[in-house]
Request: fold
Amino acid sequence: NRAGINGQSVTASLIGGINDAGARVVRAETVAGQIGNYLVEIEIPADTQPGPYQSVAVAVVLPGGQLVFSNGVYIPIR
Reply:
């Protein structure tokens, strides 16, 4: 319940996904001045299927190994 500050990294383990396949999380940090918002950069693999409506998701890995997924979103990939 505190606003994020510049450069404050997320310490939880994250998994990225593009088109139902794993993708490398490049960085994850809080958004300065906002509560509960995070910036997560995911690398789109070169062999990702292009298209106008490709799924993107992030999951947090809890200490017991359980995954908690974000809401799914869609982006165009060329």
